[in-house]
């Protein structure tokens, strides 16, 4: 029994010490329980309880209900001070979980919701990134400015213009644009011009694609850009109502897919861990990156997501290592950062496989 316990502990430590790359993390979905408590005590009048901002172990919600959770969190995070604290806490939590490179994404909200202009919103997140760097956190953080698909063409264009500005003025911190938001609202065709403009100006694109069924036309249209990475892609493959031609496009263009197991299970877009589309893409040998999506809302962290993938699909420690190392090739940061990360991985390898 002692041996057995030792093995479990050891296994846990492996995933925590595994150097990791996180490429799909929404800022306000990543707020931890501790930070939520701090926010609640700042705003007792809102009568918000932690149970309203997170989906616990064994619980599941519809995607609709998940978006209701974001509305609650947005009420709690609505000043410059809040955003700075939330971003700082989230970055430090990822660092403590062994994440060496993080691409954080967040949607600059309307001024009436935060009292901040979209520009100040972005500046505040950048300030948090710089602060963590100054304090010596062992993590390289970049920012993707998010477009909420619900807000349509004009807002998307405004967001892209800001992202372009910051790409040039943020010392390389702003590297791309994300398309997210409630997938049942709006259509990709209205956002295509903005996304095309972003791409032309050198911003990288990570797009939520086929997160729900019956979006074949939209996915086909958005794949024509093409995006630099895909978020979820849950319903792209034919076994779940997607199509072979969509899969072929993704494979031919070698577009990496960001996969978030717990998010999809708790948000009810996949029936269970073992039926997650990780299996489909992994067996194809396609570049896949394990991510958290919303570690606060879904009560997880990246170590746990790697561990879940490994235990569900029978991956050896070597296979898990390879998965985390291959994620380096999928980052939007520059080549020099990829090299630095490769070196870091090489330095840490003996420690994990002694
Ligand atoms: C669960 N699957 C998902 N699908 C689509 N969009 C999601 C999402 N999870 C989060 N977001 C997007 O991220 C926002 C919260 O973070 P920020 O305020 O931007 O930092 C949500 O309002 C939604 O637009
Ligand atoms: Zn997402």
General description of the model:
Belongs to the metallo-dependent hydrolases superfamily. Adenosine and AMP deaminases family. This protein is α/β, with parallel strands linked by helices. It contains 15 helices and eight strands. The protein has an eight-stranded parallel sheet with strand order 1-2-3-4-5-6-7-8. The longest helix has 18 residues. It binds N6-methyladenosine-5'-monophosphate and zinc ion. The site of N6-methyladenosine-5'-monophosphate has 18 residues, from α3 and β3.
Q: Helix coverage percent of residues?
A: 40-55%
The order of strands across the largest sheet is 1-2-3-4-5-6-7-8
| Beta-strand segment tally | 8
What amount of the residues lies in strands? 5-15%
List the defining traits of the structure above.
354 residues; alpha/beta; 15 helices; 13% strand; disordered N terminus; binds N6-methyladenosine-5'-monophosphate; binds zinc ion; Metal_Hydrolase; Ado/ade_deaminase; nucleotide metabolism
Question: Can you lay out the helices and strands and say which pair or pack?
Answer:
Elements: H1 2-17, E1 20-26, H2 33-42, H3 63-76, H4 80-96, E2 99-106, H5 111-114, H6 118-134, E3 140-148, H7 152-169, E4 174-180, H8 192-200, E5 204-209, H9 216-223, E6 229-232, H10 244-252, E7 257-259, H11 261-266, H12 278-284, E8 288-290, H13 302-313, H14 317-326, H15 335-352
Parallel strand pairs: 1-2, 2-3, 3-4, 4-5, 5-6, 6-7, 7-8
The chain binds N6-methyladenosine-5'-monophosphate and zinc ion.
């Amino acid at each position: 029994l002692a041996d057995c316990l030792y093995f479990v502990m050891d296994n846990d430590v492996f995933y925590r010490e595994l150097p990791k790359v996180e490429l799909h993390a929404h800022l306000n979905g990543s707020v931890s329980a501790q930070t939520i408590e701090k926010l609640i005590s700042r705003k007792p009048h809102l009568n918000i309880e932690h149970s309203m901002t997170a989906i616990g172990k064994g619980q599941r919600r519809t995607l609709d209900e998940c978006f209701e959770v974001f509305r609650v969190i947005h009420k709690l995070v609505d000043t410059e001070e809040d955003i700075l604290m939330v971003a700082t806490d989230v970055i430090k939590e990822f660092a403590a979980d062994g994440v060496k490179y993080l691409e954080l994404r967040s949607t600059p909200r309307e001024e009436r919701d935060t009292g901040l202009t979209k520009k100040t919103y972005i500046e505040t997140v950048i300030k948090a990134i710089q602060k963590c760097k100054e304090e010596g956190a062992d993590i390289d953080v970049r920012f993707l400015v998010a477009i909420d698909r619900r807000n349509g063409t004009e807002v998307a264009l405004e967001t892209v213009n800001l992202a372009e500005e910051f790409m040039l003025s943020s010392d390389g911190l702003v590297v791309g644009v994300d398309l997210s938001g409630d997938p049942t609202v709006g259509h990709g065709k209205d956002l295509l011009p903005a996304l095309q403009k972003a791409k032309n100006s050198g911003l990288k694109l990570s797009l939520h694609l086929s997160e729900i069924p019956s979006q074949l036309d939209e996915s086909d249209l958005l794949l024509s850009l093409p995006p630099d990475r895909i978020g979820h892609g849950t319903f792209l493959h034919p076994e779940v109502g997607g199509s072979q031609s969509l899969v072929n496009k993704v494979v031919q263009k070698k577009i990496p897919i960001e996969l978030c197991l717990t998010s999809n299970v708790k948000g009810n877009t996949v029936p269970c861990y073992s039926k997650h589309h990780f299996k489909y893409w992994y067996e194809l040998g396609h570049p896949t990156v394990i991510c958290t999506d919303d570690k606060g809302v879904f009560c997880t962290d990246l170590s746990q997501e790697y561990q879940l993938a490994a235990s569900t699909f029978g991956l050896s420690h070597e296979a898990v290592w390879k998965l985390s190392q291959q994620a380096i090739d999928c980052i939007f940061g520059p080549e020099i950062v990829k090299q630095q990360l490769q070196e870091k991985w090489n330095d840490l390898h003996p420690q994990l496989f002694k």
